[in-house]
């Protein structure tokens, strides 16, 4: 399984990350040993080695805490057609920690990776995705739109790429990758949770820690928790400004505005979710969250993942605030930021 950094509070989310390789620890210890130390003082040597090992481990913990998960939003969707195989492969090449996928259901009950309710934007088809069978969707071109929309990133190999099923993605990458799944539009995709959880369990990802499930829809997350309470869940939130009152409100009334949230509000979410997926700005550029809110959410025991951050300046600022993960269309940009912070 891919290894990646995590905070102490992120243990329920991010598995596979550990202390430094023992050979590296030993090498660091040897490099720190004094050449003038008497060879016959074995007791002192042992004590000093233990002290140095503790120091190495402390340094490792500090390094881990300074990092956050790189969540590839619909794959590396800034570089290739979203949620297609090229976007996922590019995200993996860029060492993303998580492959973020929006999951919807076809008319014949298949789970597919697709964001919009309508297929018009990213394919050469028309209508709602849930009105089509998997075979019908497989005939569509899900890549040429990207070349037309982003000529600077165009690639002939994108033409004709297919919509993928969740099972195809699991089969292709197995437990070598981590999957951050969103249940989309549950008012259209009724009863998608049970077959999704069954597929996750079939591949053993609920036990190996390769899965996070997120949703804007609280009832969807609660149902998943009932089906399998070992899967980490993230409550997505979107605050918007009411045009009549001018007040900020969460679009599905999950919480009050960030500034008005109380311990009770956090506790209600904590009954079913382990993390919160937040947005930085409203459409007009008004910032919705600040460092104080991020720290409050962390203090309340939540993982804090912010979507969708594509500018390195914003990434750096949010990392300073203490977020534990960022969704981005450009995993390579976030890797640059993390490297500069080392």
TrEMBL record:
It comes from the Bacteria. Residues 68-338 form the GP-PDE domain. One of its GO terms (biological process) is lipid metabolic process. InterPro entries: GP_PDE_dom, PLC-like_Pdiesterase_TIM-brl. Residues 16-82 are annotated as: Disordered. This is Glycerophosphodiester phosphodiesterase. Residues 34-66 have a biased composition (Acidic residues). GO terms for molecular function: phosphoric diester hydrolase activity. The lineage of its organism: Bacteria, Bacillati, Bacillota, Bacilli, Bacillales. It holds the Pfam family GDPD.
